Amino acid sequence: MEVVHVTEGAETFTCNAFLAIGEDGHTTLVDAGAWDGVIDEVRSHTDGVDAVVMTHQHGDHVERLEAVVDAFDPEVYAYADHPTRTHAIDDGDTVRIGDEEFDVVYTPGHADDHVSVVSESSLFSGDVVVHDDGAFDYGSFGRTDMAGQSRERLIESIRDLLERMPEGVEHMYAGHGGVFHGDVRDVVETALERAAKREPKYPDE
Fold first, then answer.
1. In this predicted model, what pLDDT tens digit does every residue of 61-87 receive, in sequence order?
2. Helix, strand or coil for residue 180?
3. Helices (runs of H) and strands (runs of E) counted in the chain
4. pLDDT, tens digit, for every residue of 45-55?
């Protein structure tokens, strides 16, 4: 399965949006992002999108969703209701991304509707855990200092994710920061250790 970071060239603030292209041609977009150029970038890699899987519905992840649906008419999988949603997903469900089956893990704390999806080889972690960001460069976690967010719930979510993650996951595609290839479990464990200290992620929190 080929995974393309389709918002990598964005010059405006957006989440990472990933296009997973299966060997059989089945394509899935994980998050739609907020970049106006995402549709043209997707079209440079594929003629169509079969499905969109949303990790959560913060604006930087969902702003271009309706435009993506208008352009490609995909199935839309999301935990929370959305005008474009065609399939509700919940903890314990499975969803196809590219040509792999992924387990859905409910991971709130950063957002009430947050899910992560994990297969035998790959993790799409949204914002619950990222490899690197402005706070840490190896094993960071989603911010929890805004209304409706909870560090305690985020910590619980990361623990749940570790329990559900198969051994040997080697690819991590997070909502922000860089793509990581290697020992994903170590990155997630590092993020958990940092989050569990309960110190502010950013100095101004």
1. 999 999 999 999 999 999 999 999 999
2. strand
3. 5, 14
4. 999 999 999 99
